[in-house]
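debug: dumping io for the single-chain case to check the tokenizer round-trip. Nothing else runs in this session.
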Amino acid sequence: MTIRVLMLSTLFPDMSRPNFGVFVERQARELGSRPDCYVTVVAPVGIPPWPLSNATPYQALARLPEKERWRDLMVYRPRFPIIPKFGGRINVTTMTRAILPLVRRLHGERPFDVIDASFFYPDGPVAARIAKVLNIPFSVKARGADIHYWGKRADTRRAVLRAGEDAAGLLAVSAAMKRSMIALGMAEDKIMVHYTGVDLDRFRIEDRYAAKDALDLKGPVVASVGALIPRKGQDLLIRAMSAMPDVTLLLIGQGPEASPLLALAQELGVSDRVGLVGAVPHDRLPQYLNAADVMALPSASEGLANAWVEALACGTPVVTSDVGGAGELIDRPEAGHIVAREPAAIATAIRDLIDNPPEREAVRETARRFTWVANGDALLAHLKGVAGKG
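debug: decoded output
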């Protein structure tokens, strides 16, 4: 039975941010590849009022087409006003007002059966309002910060809980995330664990020495893949470097902590062994993960980090903290270590994996169950059930 899905996502790549929400794009493409499923993506773009809109990132966003064929998907990018750092509470209202005329028109042309919201806030409450107007059911997926941050803020908690209550079905990126949703007050019987996927053809084992040579690297290498923001814990990795004088650390990602992290490395005298690589195109990421002896990400919170899965698929063990679904993925010695968020513990775990490297095929085996086909099968079945087409 055919199903028409409106995918609503504030996490979606574009020409100015090709790595932003790439996992949502890949999930949407997998879902849309099914002959019985039609997917339309609405990826709202937040832009602040003048003069804040003159900032370089927002100028790039303002130039994006409002409708385009992105990979295999039809993507609409309506604009909505935001107030950076202070306007989270009003984003639901401004986004709904901005996109409702568009989705009404699209629904009138070819009716949707269900709305799939890719993030709990603001996407979830917006989906709830639109679903009510269109008189169709909706589902929301919890990924991490949307529950751990927006679900606990006094000014947004109620909207998050109301979206969970009104949704016909809910998805959690890990069993740990499901437990967090239940603890927040959401109905257990409504939540399905829906793991991410990884492209096992792209993220595969390659010769480590060749990868290091191509990147002009020598000796043991630790890669950390993630946005340069405080909760990702890159500062802990830099502090751990003092105990690992032969190790090079590559920070792959971008964000507001870039300058403070570089200053910390200089202060500790390890800046010659810490590289801020910046954003790396997703199709080049496997080269860095193959060059690394360890991928480390001592986050304060996660759902189930795609960076963990992609590293394991490349045969690279992971060192991370006991957050989110870490224990669901790093469930055997070959996969790596889950440690305390302390520099000494992190350094000890990294050193163990460098000195006693697990067999790379055994590492990769831990990621084999996370395929996009399995992800798409589960999502399609879930959405058909929500839409009453199961």
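debug: round-trip ok. Residues 91-109 form the longest helix (19 residues).
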